[in-house]
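Issue 218. Parser rejects a valid record. Input:
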Amino acid sequence: MKKYLFLIFVFLVFIALTHLTLAEEKICSIWLRIFRNDTVILESFSVEEGLQSHFPTSQTGYYVEVLSYNNEILFKANVGISFNIHILTTEIPTNITTELNEILINLRLPFFENAKEINLYHEDKKIFSLQLSNYICNKNGICEKERGETVELCPLDCHCGNGICEKILEENYENCPQDCKPEQPTFSFYIYAFIIAIIFVLIFLIFWKSRSVRYESPT
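Output the parser choked on:
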């Protein structure tokens, strides 16, 4: 009996871990230090695989938005921010409230390829804004998708794929077929080919004429 219970336990743990793994997705992880006077300091930012934060459904006075380059709201959620800590003492059951001047929170937001910025609001006042290109783009000419670089967000790194064959960036059909078509012979190419063909024809005629004259000359 114990053996079967153990196997059932292992199976349930496996199912739970599998569910968590499948639920992971690419997210933006932001650590913010927020002060009571609405000052916000960015502690860290990263794009990684993980789970989204749990956002309260009721209004808290604070909310976060993710905007696209067209200023479309891609994601919006309430943020649970409170500067009051409730402490329940053990000796004499008493609920004590302690007020803080600052708190540290971690926002794990869904990642969007066409996202431009992340904004945090207190009521209708924007208290923090993060331009994603400043923290994601490596500016090394390499489109690092694992970092979250996209054509919209990092055009200097991810120029291949923007629909423009940029010769100044050395794009061609071989290294960027998405943007560049196979090179077609130009008009000057046909002119040079025609001239070379004429030269070969003239050389052949001169050679043939010289041989004919040689054979027709009296012995």
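Fixed in the parser; the record now loads. The chain has three helices and nine strands.
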